[in-house]
Design a protein that fits this description.
This protein is mostly helical. It has 2 domains: 40 residues, no CATH class; 199 residues, Mitochondrial carrier domain (Mitochondrial carrier fold). It contains 7 helices and 2 strands, in the order ββααααααα. α3 packs antiparallel against α5. The longest helix has 42 residues. It is globular. The N and C termini lie close together (11 Å). It is a multi-pass membrane protein. One of its GO terms (cellular component) is mitochondrial outer membrane. Belongs to the mitochondrial carrier (TC 2.A.29) family. It is found in: Mitochondrion outer membrane.
């Protein structure tokens, strides 16, 4: 990868000297110095379109398979029944997430490429329509879906781990006789989401790296990054670092 700013020397919780990469505000200041304030908004338009497509797709899937047909988990359910309902709800959620990811991913690819143009000072992917035409011409239809598989895997693993862990904790670890049981249960899924996101982050990272890899931009070519043959190749390369 490329680090435009040198790391700073600091100390960890054990008092040892370590090198820290600059934080968000340091990088933001660097972008403003090089590109002006407009540089902070590279890739914003395709990102907004991607989010809009994702929301519309989720809504369409939800209408086609309404939640009214789903059974919701109740405190009165026995263990087997509640687990069956969680699996059913998670499957429904996964279907919506996968559909929205597939539809919105092409714009996500464009957004990522617009952002990494900062590295090589390129303008290859300026404008959504121009970017769509260039990707189709150079890479074909598959060019819009590079990095899709690890993103979907990350989404699916996140949903199942988060929902099942929250269910098991609420069922076996939280006592119904405890006065704050309902409050704890309401936060379990949120806390599990934070924990599981650490597990699935590598999938999102690999997906984003594949979106810009070997696409003609300096940030996706040596010496900044090898030309990966597949997302598995990228995963193995990062794991070895």
């Amino acid at each position: 990868g490329r680090e435009p700013l040198p790391p700073t020397v600091g100390r960890n919780v054990l008092g040892r000297k370590v090198l820290y990469l600059p934080g968000f505000f340091t990088y933001a200041r660097h972008i403003v110095e090089v590109d002006g304030k407009r540089g902070l908004f590279r890739g914003l338009t395709p990102r907004l379109i991607s989010s809009t497509l994702s929301t519309i797709t989720r809504g369409s899937v939800k209408k086609a398979f309404p939640l009214e047909d789903m059974e919701h988990v109740s405190n009165k359910d026995d263990v087997k029944t509640s687990l069956r309902k969680v699996v059913k709800e998670t499957s429904h959620e996964m279907m919506m997430q996968c559909a929205s990811r597939v539809v919105s991913h092409p714009l996500h690819v464009i957004s990522m490429r617009c952002m990494v143009q900062f590295v090589g000072r390129e303008v290859k992917y300026s404008g959504v329509l121009r970017a769509i035409g260039r990707i189709f011409k150079e890479e074909g239809i598959l060019g819009f879906f590079v990095g899709l598989v690890p993103h979907i895997l990350g989404d699916v693993i996140f949903l199942w781990c988060c929902n099942l862990l929250a269910h098991f904790i609420n069922t076996y670890a939280v006592d119904d006789n405890f006065s704050q049981a309902s409050v704890i249960r309401s936060y379990t899924k949120f806390v599990m989401g934070i924990a599981v996101s650490m597990l699935t982050y590598p999938f999102l990272l690999v997906g984003d790296l594949m979106a810009v890899n070997n696409c003609g931009l300096r940030a996706g070519l040596p010496p900044y990054a090898p030309a990966f043959a597949s997302w598995i190749h990228c995963w193995r390369y990062l794991s070895a670092q």
